[in-house]
Amino acid sequence: MSANELRTTATTAIVDREPFDTTMPEALNEIWASDVFDVTTMEESLSKSAFKEMKAAVQTGAPLDPTTADVVAAAMKDWALSKGAKFFSHVFYPLTNITAEKHDGFIVTNGDGRAITEFTGSILIKGEPDGSSFPNGSLRTTNAARGYTAWDPTSPAYVMRRANGATLMIPSVFMSWTGESLDKKIPLLRSNSAMDSAAKRVLELMGETEVATLNSSCGAEQEYFLVDAHFANARPDLLLAGRTLFGAPSPKGQEFDDHYFGAIPERVQVFMQDFEDQMYRLGIPAKTHHNEVAPGQFEIAPYFEAANVAADHQQLMMTIMTSTAKAHGFMCLLHEKPFAGLNGSGKHVNWSVGNSTQGNLLDPGHTPAENLNFLLFCGAVIRGVHLYGPLLRAVIASAGNDHRLGANEAPPAILSVYLGEQLEAVFESIRSGIASDLADGGTMDLGLAQILPFSRDPGDRNRTSPFAFTGNRFEFRAVGSGQSVSGPLIAMNTILADSLAWIADELEAAFARGLDKPVAVATVLQELMEMHGNVVFGGDGYSSDWHADAVAERGLRNIPTTADALPELVTDEVKGLFERTGVLSEAELESRYEVYSEQYILSIGVEADLVVELARTMIYPAAMKYLAELTTTVASAGSLGIEIDPSPAAAIGTAATALMSAVDALESALAVEDFDESVEKHMQHCAETLRDGMDAVRTHADTLETLVADAHWPLPKYREMLFIR
Ligand code: ADP
Ligand code: MG
Question: pLDDT tens, 501-553?
């Protein structure tokens, strides 16, 4: 079928669609985590001593001894086989935003041809997927291409079901044969332990006698679009680039605000329930779902979990959403900006740190001691965002996210911290010298007990801030919908670790000078606020005043594009940060920079190629076909003495000619190859010349869409994709 036929038959196909085969829902307690080899399953299937060792490994990441590993592997295999699994796979998280897996059978045959199953501790712990074609940023040459996966026992194994089979999935790290990280999990685990050590130092200095291991937590809110597959399949741009590269605005868009939090369309709700049941089986706590601002846009948010598990679950969730959408005749769009002129999709990463003895350290708490700890941790975040704002900008950089940031629908590309009115006032009074009052015998009543209920009220939140305190956590709101949450989590944990280490040094010095606890804390925080308080901003992040003031008055950086942001990964400051905290070596960081910049260049390149192809082979021909019809009609009517206004034909001729010259210009820009081996120059070429070139082609194409007869138009229109369900 031609694209045009696909488009014209889509609506009928959608209307005639068979209803999704629904069965009665299963009870939550029956499906919850039923496909997870979790602590409860382990307790049931392991000996007491093996279970004890395994539990310690889960909680602290302590290595297993080989005998226990064998016992665990055997139990895991029996459990998986009982679920119908015949294969197992180490699943890992390479430097792309997707997951990777290599499947192996449990089966081995013995001498007389009988099949037996085998799965030992060493197979469980280590796999060798080769993986020479995973992006590694020069960390491996192909002749030394071996990459290893190793089981991460802190993230539970699970069984992944497909229509007629199941596979045991083992969450794993992925590294080179020299032990360098080739993935997103290793640095996340390392950043967590760096944060743990630094936090312990601070808490012990603050007189806490019992301090359990600290962990970071993450709850990610995922926005996405659903488009009927009949339309999506007729849009090569959605299939290849995940976003529309063309499309005139729909006469009705999101201006009525009638979709946001409206009733969920039945077909979408059926889809949601289906994929959430699958999540429940996998122990992923789906908690809220609702419509989002743009038509066809929705959100799902699971309940927060330990960051490492949440990151794995987030990846898994994106996979399940995409495949389930397919089964329901939708295409699920995780791209940050699928439709021009409508809100894009983000992923708000809610993050906090805590442990079982002190609780959540970003929760103000109710006692003066809890308040002091909270102020130190919150101050540490402020310092981190100020010092490493460009790093935070770099970890959310992608070709897709560039369309959102700073476009008045998502936070600006300037990193600032929103604290809320009350907490901001507290930090301001610290900045203006509360320490000296305290030293003179003043009291420390900061009114923190009120902050908690106040900031938790979403009505009081500042939606224009990229990094907002929301009562007991920070919400990094600038993350892109298609991105892995690991990069942001690694950056947040690491800057926190660095700041807590600085605070510990300063506290030690203050105590050495004989200051008592509240005065020491206020003194350290005063110094911190004097140096870094400029990053705290409670105003409108979308306003143009802020864009000017942030840079001119406060010295913050505005980093508009990925091409500008990615080089910030490899500055001396950032290298020092990651080296000091032991999260990434210089070589590992350089390799990431290389991989991410290559991904950026490739994705803009694919889009630009596609723009050229679609403009030449679909849009221009449609315009010419209609133009031919028009001119023939005008001419034959003229021969009958009927005069027809030739201006519509002329308008098409003009737009089509402009389209083709924009296409030629873009094609020449694509042919440029001389960047003196400078990846920075190449990225800038993409960010400026290619993006502008694509926009130019699009403008003329979108004009043509409003001139050419509907029946000739090859690509499904915005109004169809957004409103027909
Ligand atoms: P909103 O849309 O108001 O921001 P949601 O309920 O949609 O709130 O999402 C908030 C997310 O933050 C959820 O995933 C929630 O579990 C998570 N969250 C709540 N408390 C914490 C915390 N202490 N640390 C990390 N994440 C949290
Ligand atoms: Mg939120």
Answer: 999 999 999 999 999 998 999 999 999 999 999 999 999 888 889 989 999 99
- For 273-283, how does the pLDDT look when each residue is reduced to its tens digit (9 = 90+)? 999 999 999 99
| Token pair in block for residue 10 | 């889509």
Query: Which secondary-structure segment (H or E) carries 263?
Result: none
* Cross-strand partners of 467: 476
- Written as six digits, the tokens of 529 are 């606020």
Å from CA of 319 to ligand 2 middle: 22
pLDDT by residue (tens digit) across 162-172? 888 999 999 99
Backbone angles phi, psi at 80, to 5 degrees: -65, -40
Measured distance CA(191)–CA(311) in Å, rounded: 13
* Domains of the chain, CATH where assigned: 32-183 (3.10.20.70), 598-723 (1.20.120.1560)
> Whose structure tokens read 């001419």?
635
**269: Cβ–Cβ under 8 A, 6 or more apart, which residues?**
none
CA 301 to chain centre: 13
Whole-number pLDDT of residue 140: 58
**Average pLDDT value for the chain:** 91
Ligand 1 atom having least distance to the Cα of 219 = 14
**What is the pLDDT, as a whole number, of residue 367?**
74
- Select from 195, 218, 221 the residue to mutate for testing ligand 1; criterion: most ligand atoms less than 8 Å from CB: 221
| Dihedral (CA of 274, 280, 284, 287) sign | positive
Q: Which two tokens stand for residue 463?
A: 């939606």
Average the pLDDT over 461-480 and give the result: 90
Nearest to 155 by CA among 144, 167, 170, 145: 170
CB 329 within 8 A of CB 10: no
Tell me, using a 6 A CB cutoff, whether residue 352 lines ligand 1: yes
Q: Is 303 in the pocket of ligand 1 (CB under 6 A)?
A: yes
Cα-to-centroid distance, 348 and ligand 2 (Å): 6
Q: Any idea which of 173-182, 385-394, 653-662 has the lowest mean pLDDT?
A: 173-182
Place of tokens 């979990």: 305
- How far is residue 123's CA from residue 114's CA, in Å, rounded to a whole number? 21
Q: Quick count: other Cβ atoms within 10 Å of Cβ 641?
A: 6
Residue 720 pLDDT exceeds 80: yes
The answer to whether the pTM exceeds 0.90 is yes
CA atoms within 13 A of residue 569's CA, in its CB half-sphere: 28
458 CA distance to ligand 2 middle (Å): 8
